[in-house]
Design brief:
- The strands form two sheets. Strands 12-11-7-10-9-8-13 form a seven-stranded mixed sheet.
- It is of the alpha/beta class and 282 residues long.
- The chain is built from eight helices and 13 strands.
- Strand 4, helix 4 and strand 5 form a beta-alpha-beta unit.
- It has two domains: 129 residues, Rossmann fold (3-Layer(aba) Sandwich), CATH 3.40.50.720; 114 residues, Dihydrodipicolinate Reductase, domain 2 (2-Layer Sandwich).
């Protein structure tokens, strides 16, 4: 049996609480010999359930050490979506294993750290990828960079939290536009924010407001499409993870992930000094 393991900062969080059932549903649908078997966490969530209780609830074996966890797993999922600054430390032993590793968004606290994580994985010949689930939404299927419509403008909308939701919108922008924007400018207040990404002769934008749903609008200069994001993008992400574990070719290129990190973290700086262009460095 192919054994999957979850490593989290603490396990009582949305991704860890929902991914086991999503994996088991897709594994059953494919009738493959694979299971979510192991879990480990650095700590227990304050006010939440303990790692031991989580493992009992979600039918996983709680490993006694990260060494045991890495040894027993055939593929490793590093979660901690709210703790990107912990990812490099958490990934040290998994990325030395040669086994396929997925690291949850937000991949890294900055581009330099992100590049260092990829270099370490490459040095150990460990397959690695990271992505927001929104990258895999069905609504982008015909509009990815290099496929279908050649976008000269991509606009995304989403809810009013930069820390939580900006990664998803920027991931959609990068998926459609390809590469990395050259610079970014921001405007906003506590009610919401708008960011403009300059690609030279192409542009992208993201708008965040309270209760605004995820959607994407794409123009090639002649026709324009608008798509509310209604597909089950988390299920699509799980499918890509399983495919990656079976045949460890990353579905997202390293430079695409690093482009997203560069755009995200430069956008954060732009919000602190609004109405100024900030160059984005890969």
């Amino acid at each position: 049996m192919f054994k999957i393991g979850f490593y989290d900062y603490y396990l009582d969080e949305w991704h860890a609480n929902n991914y086991p059932a999503m994996f088991r549903k897709e594994i059953a649908k494919r009738s493959i010999d694979m299971e979510v078997c192991y879990a480990i966490a650095d700590t227990d969530k304050p006010g939440g359930i303990s790692t031991k209780e989580w493992c009992k609830k979600y039918n996983c074996i709680n490993c006694s050490s990260i060494e045991e966890f890495v040894d027993l797993c055939d593929a490793i999922i590093i979660l901690a979506p709210s703790f990107p600054s912990e990812h490099e430390r958490m990934a040290k032993l998994p990325l030395a294993s040669g086994k396929p590793v997925y690291i949850d968004k937000i991949f890294s606290p900055d581009v330099i750290t992100g590049r260092r994580i990829f270099e370490y994985a490459n040095m150990n010949k460990t397959p690695l990828f990271s992505a927001s689930a929104l990258r895999f939404c069905d609504e982008l299927a015909d509009y990815r960079a290099g496929e279908g419509m050649k976008a000269i403008w991509c606009a995304t909308t989403g809810p009013n939290s930069f820390d939580i939701y900006a990664i998803h919108q920027i991931e959609m922008i990068q998926t459609v536009m390809g590469g990395c924007a050259q610079r970014v400018k921001a405007f906003g207040n506590k009610g919401g924010r708008t960011l403009l990404f300059d690609y030279g002769n192409r542009m992208a934008s993201m708008l965040q407001l309270d209760n605004l749903p995820f959607q994407v609008t794409i123009s090639d200069g002649e026709k324009c499409i608008n798509r509310p994001i209604n597909s089950n993008f988390f299920e699509n992400l799980i499918k890509h993870m399983i495919d990656f574990f079976i045949n460890p070719i990353p579905p997202v290129a390293k430079n695409d992930t690093l482009s997203v990190m560069a755009m995200l973290h430069t956008a954060r700086s732009a919000l602190k000094e609004q109405d100024n262009w900030f160059n984005i460095t890969m």
